[in-house]
Amino acid sequence: MKRSFGLAFALFVCTFTFAQQALWGGTSIVSPEIHENNTVTFRLKAPKAVKVQVTGDFLPTQKIKTPFGDFDGPGAADLIEKDGTWEYTTPQPLKPELYSYTFLVDGLKMNDPNNVYMIRDVVSVTNVFIIGGGRADLYKVNKVPHGTVSRVWYNSPTLGMDRRLTVYTPAGYETSGKNYPVFYLLHGMGGDEEAWIALGRTAQILDNLIAQGKAKPMIVVMTNGNASQEAAPGESSLGFVSPNMQLPKTMEGSFEMAFPDVVKFIDKNYRTIKRKQARAIAGLSMGGFHSMHISKQFPDMFNYVGLFSAAIMPDNNVKSPVYADLEGKLKAQFAQNPALYWIAIGKTDFLYKANEDFRKLMDDKGYKYMYYETDEGHIWKNWRIYLTEFSPLLFK
Amino acid sequence: MKRSFGLAFALFVCTFTFAQQALWGGTSIVSPEIHENNTVTFRLKAPKAVKVQVTGDFLPTQKIKTPFGDFDGPGAADLIEKDGTWEYTTPQPLKPELYSYTFLVDGLKMNDPNNVYMIRDVVSVTNVFIIGGGRADLYKVNKVPHGTVSRVWYNSPTLGMDRRLTVYTPAGYETSGKNYPVFYLLHGMGGDEEAWIALGRTAQILDNLIAQGKAKPMIVVMTNGNASQEAAPGESSLGFVSPNMQLPKTMEGSFEMAFPDVVKFIDKNYRTIKRKQARAIAGLSMGGFHSMHISKQFPDMFNYVGLFSAAIMPDNNVKSPVYADLEGKLKAQFAQNPALYWIAIGKTDFLYKANEDFRKLMDDKGYKYMYYETDEGHIWKNWRIYLTEFSPLLFK
């Protein structure tokens, strides 16, 4: 009788694994396979398919025609079939980076069933992989002390809602007894409090930079910048709704006006250094727009400001006290000499001109800022770069 | 000029959304659509497909033949094509539950591109949806105060490793100043510290039970029970490795012997009630095995023990001091009258007989326990039920 327990369990494990594979489509195929020279092979078992392609940001971009004009999108490459398994190997080694991809099977998009690593970006879920080396090693989990990542709910009296935050506290926070500076990090349009921790790799980047002594230990607070929303899709009482790129109350002043609620909550519930010198705010795209407006609306709050591919829109046709008197408020903000005002954008970003105009305004007024320019455009690759460049400049 | 900013951005939003949909396969199709009467329609746009099926645990099970014997697996249903879009509506309303499904397109498994909600279970990622009502309302995010969910790293001196935990602290923890009881909740084979918070819906279940006054506010600690592993797949320095059902050092004593490291870390870093009366341990399958062995190995540590479909294996052919003298250790454990020893299993579970034999042993010795039996077998549906039944019994 004793024997049968172990035997039953061993059989269960085998059966379970086999059945999971049979039912849910897992196979023994390896995809993506990253070779030693950093070429990558993608594989898909699809005996009945006529055409299989892989599309992703590791391929040269291609022009996508849309009703709104051309768009630089990820390219596609054909897989070749042999015995029912399709395969494509990149002709060249890939540069270090976190890449996204999906398959196109007879025109139908599908995620790679042999790669469980997927990240949602607004309305789409794609597979991901990392080619290590250089800056991309900062995007990896390495053998360094790890901070804590928490999903926390706070009450916003100004918005009259309970809302969700993602909070990174650095390794050692729990036991050090010390107080820490706080970096508020804001997502772009369609994003939420999951964006920076997922595609942004914030926890990995901060763990690694802090371990290398390049960034100060700090708390990073990732807010939800959609003032109509309690939490990321699936995390509120709305249930498993479809994510939406265009939400109400995103760039009309509500989020900015309610931002002190977040700072108060963080200062009350974490061991923070509760003064301007120990606070930074930055964001990508819409989050850059928010960071610009919040930092000038509350000029005593932040000493470090980062605009990452910021959606700078002097005239956004919204009447809110937040957007009134841009120049007067900038003047008040810069009269206090912020320690850092950092502007970054990619050369092909559709917001390049808007940022150039904003820099001209800054130059005209003699406001000091640092400028960082990269190749390419309005993409996560750039935002991860900006985070790795900006965070070492903070709280020094 | 001013005009162009807003226009460029509006165009970007449209183009971005359109391009994302075109490139990554999102469409305006709604799937799954949960109708008011709780029938559900699944849809997939696949003009070139010959046969499209949906498979999932909302369908009657079917026998799957494997080299290891037959296996009760999810059934499959055919979708019908019209104008390139395939559709299937359940003939009957579905009962309240969290369900998993995927599509099979010409035999190829694929996730639903119109449903961003997916959860990994060991080696497979499937889409999920919830039919509300009854017990399943506990699995939803509702308008109640929400606890905090943290991913925390601790050092295990016994294992000589930094390891990852998922910790739930109840709503109000941050500000109450109170000390809380702790419930240690353990996953099954192939699982990790993400299992209970993902498919287990622990945060939602505890938020809801606590808000209803049915469970005491408590801290829930979800460990990683694979003693060879620092963290869940993708969360350690191993990188984006393929998950594996069969890991080394899972049921050979290492995890059990090192468990006091976890308790010490939690007691040091959280406001806990640091005594046996305020500690519970439970787990599913392998986690039930672990809970049984840990609670008798350290009889002064836990006052509440839950075995959920426990992998009880009196002879698992492993020589570890943990597994020696089962009866002697149970005697010592029950000599101290634990407040609750709770055994639950499904009628068709392959471990039913093993649990029956274990209960006979308990009965023979006169050890008190509660027994809870459900329909069906070794599935998450049952483990969520057990969590909703067990946690209200704790710390009363």
Automatic annotation (TrEMBL), chains A, B:
GO molecular function annotation: hydrolase activity, acting on glycosyl bonds
Protein name as annotated: Endo-1,4-beta-xylanase A
UniProt KW Hydrolase keyword: yes
InterPro entries in the cross-refs: AB_hydrolase_fold, Esterase-like, Ig-like_fold, Ig_E-set, Mycobacterial_A85_antigen
CDD domains membership: E_set_Esterase_like_N
Signal peptide start and end residues: 1-19
BP-aspect Gene Ontology terms: xylan catabolic process
Highest taxon, organism lineage: Bacteria
Keyword Oxidoreductase attributed: no
The entry's keywords: Carbohydrate metabolism, Glycosidase, Hydrolase, Polysaccharide degradation, Signal, Xylan degradation
